[in-house]
Amino acid sequence: MAELIQPQMGLNFEQVWAAFMETRQQIKEAQQETDRQMKVLQKNMGELGNRFGELAEHLVIPNIVQKFNALNYQFEDTSKERKFFNPATGRLEAEFDILLENGTYSIGVEVKTKPADKDVAEHISRLEFLRRYKDKKGDKREIRGALAGAIMPENVRQAALRAGLYVIEQSGDTVKIEEPKQLRGW
């Protein structure tokens, strides 16, 4: 008589389900740890980006008044990180890294480590807001703008100059200001 071969009994449903649930929990814990590490990395990258921005500002600020005054502006007031809020909503509407002012002009300066094309457009929007803000206050000073960068890509330099903005770049231990062919006032 032939011997009956009994099939090997594998795992039962409860065992498979338990293994599945354990694997699922391990995956969930690994994902949570990955998410935590990503948040730490993003925070550190943000802080590093802010440090580079601070460095760029510190390179530009010390010489900027003298450089603009050499262009016959004679600025009397310099503000760093000047914020403008909407009085009705209390919402921040515009912030200038540097705002230079005298009785005739206000020059809003945006400082970036390495400016991009979008920074030109965003800065123009801030300058337009500043014009509306000053008009509401009866302040008729001419608004002008400048884009500063520790590293200034050529395409961004050209875009800023075409837009009527001054271009400010690091040059050795000081900064140089390039004046656009046609200054734009807001």
Description:
This protein is α/β, with parallel strands linked by helices. It has a single domain, classed as Trna Endonuclease, Chain: A, domain 1, CATH 3.40.1350. It is built from 3 helices and 6 strands, in the order H-E-E-E-H-E-H-E-E. It has helices spanning 13-69, 117-136, 154-162, and strands at 77-85, 92-101, 105-112, 142-149, 166-171, 174-178. Strands 1-2-3-4-5-6 form a 6-stranded mixed β-sheet, sandwiched between helices. A hairpin with a 3-residue loop joins strand 2 (92-101) and strand 3 (105-112). The longest helix is centred in the first third of the chain and has 57 residues, at 13-69. The radius of gyration is 29 Å and the shape is elongated. The termini are far apart. The relative contact order is 0.11.
Mean pLDDT: 85
Strand content: 15-25%
N to C succession of SSEs: HEEEHEHEE
**Percent range of helical residues:** 40-55%
Total of domains: 1
Global geometry: elongated
